[in-house]
Amino acid sequence: MKHRIWLVLGLITLGLLAGCASSGPERDINDPTNSLVFGYVDMDDAPTSVSSAWIMQVAPPSDTPYWGLGISKGLFYNSYLPPGSYQLSKLGGSGFFAGQHEYSFPRQGNQTALRISKPGIYFLGSYKYKKVKSGMFSQAKFAIEKINKPTEAELLKRILDESSDIKDSAWGNKIRARLAQLKS
Amino acid sequence: MIPRRLKLARVRLAASLLLLGALSACVGAAREPVDSLSGLGGDETVVVGRIELVPPLRKDEQKLKGLNSGSFENKVFLLADEHYRVLTDEPGMGDYAGRIEAILGKNFFVRSNSKPFFILGGMMYLDLGGQETNRAYFPGGLKVSLKPGDKAVYVGTVQYHRNEFFEITKAAIVDDYDRTNAEFRKKFGTKTPLRKALLTPVK
Question: What residues does each domain of chain A span?
Answer without folding.
Answer: 2-183
